[in-house]
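#structure-requests
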Amino acid sequence: MSETKTKPTGADVSAFLDTVEHPTRRADGHALRTLFERVSSEPACLWGPSIVGFGSRHYRYESGREGDTPRIAFSPRKASLVFYLHHYDGYDADLATLGKHKPGKGCLYIGKLADVDQARLETMVRKAWEASA
């Protein structure tokens, strides 16, 4: 079985966010860090080279593969902001009122924070945090 590459690195999260080229995505990354820290009461931690995670949880698949992953996370990628949020009851209903986004398999893509309802996003992050405990 291969080893997972997404692990806490101990790298400086602020320094990583400061390297994001796109100025709006860089500012959004810092704003998201503040939001996620407020919701989780956990410090930001860089997982792998580009995922800003909060808290951790252990998983184990029926196949026997297991590992650790952040409870909630985001990544300011080149094309969009990517959110890694545990799905919860009502997730799809919340997505319907979020604003401009693209759902992905296991993640959520948003171009910029200004495209979505900030209060709805915070609610979704909070619900995902609670559901991932």
